[in-house]
Amino acid sequence: MKIILVRHGEAESVSPEGDRNRKLTTKGIEDIHKIGAFIRNANLRIAQIYYSPYLRTKHTADILAEELHLEDHTIAADELCAGRDCSELLPDLCSYTNSDAIILVGHNPDIAYFLSKLLGQSCETNLIFSPGTTVAVNVPKEKFSQGQILWVVSPDFLSCEKEESKSDPALV
User: For the chain, what is the domain count?
Assistant: First the structure.
């Protein structure tokens, strides 16, 4: 199966309501729209989007769901909360098929640790999940290990579809 790990978009550094209620910045919102368009163009069959029940991850999941036309396919998962072991979510993923793709929206460094486990590494990967960074892994659901990275993308290296259509007359 394909597991797509997404770090939430750029969020405000402080919220008066506490860490769980930090909102995405304007850049964070724009970046996640770019990531959603990238995933949509990857032609994967996304079965579900799981997210940490923090405001910034929920908003990230909502934007992805909008871009992918999967508004009814988002689920809050406590296993993706900051400081938790994302591997605790694996039993829930066993019900999907090897041809399904699942998106998990979480926090750093937890998703970096989880990526290491999916790849079968005993130590943390050197991959840095800056806000919005997304990694797709192909992994057999029978063992959730020995996975293979399909692609890694940062929103900073993607252009906005709207900007492309304005600047390229062939796309208008």
Answer: 1
